[in-house]
Amino acid sequence: MQKTTSDRSQLPTMGEGRAALLARVHAALGRDKTQAPSEPAPVVDESIARLASSDADLPALFTERAQSVGMKVHRVSLEQVVPRLRELLGQLEARRIGVAAGSVGERLELELDAALQADGVKQIDWQAREGVSAQYDLDVGITDVHAAIAETGTLVCCSGSRSSRGLSLVPPVHIALVRVSDILPDMIDYWARLKGMPNTELPSSQAFITGPSKTADIEGELVTGVHGPGAVHILLIDG
Amino acid sequence: MSDTLFPKLPYKLKQRADEATVNIQLQQFVNHATYSKDVARKQAMGGAFGENTDAVRDLAGQIKQHTLDHLDHYLEQFIDNATATGVQVHFARDGEQANQIAVAIAEANKCRLCVKSKSMVTEETHLLPALEAVGCETVETDLGEFILQLDNDAPSHIVTPMIHKDRTAVARAFQRELGAEYTEDAEALAQIARKHLREKYRKADLGISGGNFLVAETGSVVLCTNEGNGRFCTTAPRIHVAFVGIEKLVPRLEHLGVMLKVLARSSTGQPLTCYTHTITGPKREHEHDGPEEVHVVLVDNGRTDVLHEDTREMLRCIRCGACLNSCPVYRKIGGHSYGAVYSGPIGAILTPMLKGLENYTDLPHASSLCGACYEACPVKINIPKYLIQLRRDMVQNHLSGTGDRVTMRLWGESLQHEWSYRIGGWMQKTFARMQAKFGGTLETDDPYASRGWLTWAPGPVKGWTQERDMPTPTAKSFRHWWRKEHGR
């Protein structure tokens, strides 16, 4: 059973206790109680740390970087999204899929529902069951993104009432719907967007996805799809 | 396995290093892997930051140093903010206490199967046997760690734990332990692991991870993995427990904009790890998947001893492994020679601090002080400086061997006067040339040329001549030649 917010303040703490740990930290720092820093934390100097700015051709940069880490990018107009998805799902021989792409628009969802039904592709109701158990036998997970980062070719997929942690991870293929307007130049811009948001409102999970699942543990040879999706397709939607 | 990283103390590295230096296969694997990663790091850092490469390392180092200088403040912030999101924060003085906490969570929830992602802290605390002892089967899910677990072997690199093994070892382990058909195809091997571990994720009721960063401002845990196992272990099971060292803090989310940029590039040459995952509390009420309970175990295990001012900088380490990849000594002797969880240059300074200098007197000497580690470090830890500092501490605390002390004393004395210097020099020269006649080659008539090699010598010189030949000194000294040429 999930704990409600009210009993969270009395969550049990194990081990030596907060005070004991802090006492040793204080001793090492040469003081007897916690002091607020006398100087502010270092500022993220953008002239050093920023690697892409809004002057750049963001869709082009994002496409180039996403491809360089092994994701496939398909540039489409909004009208082409459903036909292109059908085509892609056909090529992948997908029989069972999960879709969580609410932010791209209700019309698109309805259109996609009808098309999938016509093609005999079964859409599971991933919201009906808690956890990821229903997602293991899916062929494809389709998700929207909360942002995309041009500089690294990264998809940001967050948890939420209309999005799932599992759909971008559990099925062997992940298809991400990215609108050009989702693209931010640099990771710095993503953090700036969250600034001031109370932490209890942050998504419990923010996944920065930069490529398909990879390993080089066996003699340094790059293999994809070791735990997560072996293929990531991005439909980059104009407008 | 436990012997490899937890040898009998005090630990002497000579035997393992000797074995490693004649193991041609090990040399090839380690050399190839570290060399290619070192090149990838330089290209990735230089390619992204160009002339700012040094400046971004400064900035990353400053962020970590500032956090450590005010660790009390940021720890308290983290604890409060994490608790507000529903995370249960626990405190572990040492490894044993950390394991007890994990065991208590597993027992309270009657957990039978635990999936675990890669974490150096859990290697430190030796968590796996503790969970298994209470009947909670625990499976390593990082491919490298999984294979090491099947082979009852130990990791030898911070980032690529099975750097000392090749594909045939993987194939044999899968054939023996999983009943898989023998194949040396890396892709097929990865698929065998995928299939096997998927079943584990499906059934697991406990997930254990480490943490690459903790964010004080939000109480978030940040995990960086490439395979996706880190996300699986923190998504599929009902309970997630993160073991994290107290030094992993950064003040705010925006600081990740710097730290993440240098971590993956320094580690594997990637712009970001495939999966960089920020966890802020358990699954919210309106969410459909994710763990219902999230626990963070803040592990000290010796870190507050290192936090003292004169060694604090060591705790900046973000475990990228760049210093291992760049180190000529690590490349030669491999990770297991260091006899501890942390190997390579950072291990050579951190291990003596965490486990007692008197227990690891060889480690501060396991370096040529070439400085490649300092150059590679994305948070600019001055590793050579600390190697020298530890050597000095050893002398001051009388931890260096009697032989060393006598030799250094004699050397020091003989350099005090011209006459003793001359006699010393003459003795060394005469002895070495005599020795070369019997146990080496000496083939020149030129009194000022050294054309001979000393291939074997007794006593303190033996260690040198075992590995390489030593050139013989010339018959006549430089001073002799100078007097002859210049008259005085």
UniProtKB/TrEMBL annotation, chain A:
Coiled coil: none annotated. InterPro entries: FTHF_cligase-like_sf, LUD_dom, NagB/RpiA_transferase-like. Residues 61-237 form the LUD domain. It comes from the Bacteria. Transmembrane segments: none annotated. It holds the Pfam family LUD_dom. This is Lactate utilization protein C. It comes from Natronomicrosphaera hydrolytica.
TrEMBL record, chain B:
NCBIfam families: LutB/LldF family L-lactate oxidation iron-sulfur protein. This is LutB/LldF family L-lactate oxidation iron-sulfur protein. Keywords: 4Fe-4S, Electron transport, Iron, Iron-sulfur, Metal-binding, Repeat, Transport. Residues 305-338 form the 4Fe-4S ferredoxin-type domain. PROSITE patterns: 4FE4S_FER_1, 4FE4S_FER_2. It comes from the Bacteria. Pfam families: Fer4_8, LUD_dom, LutB_C.
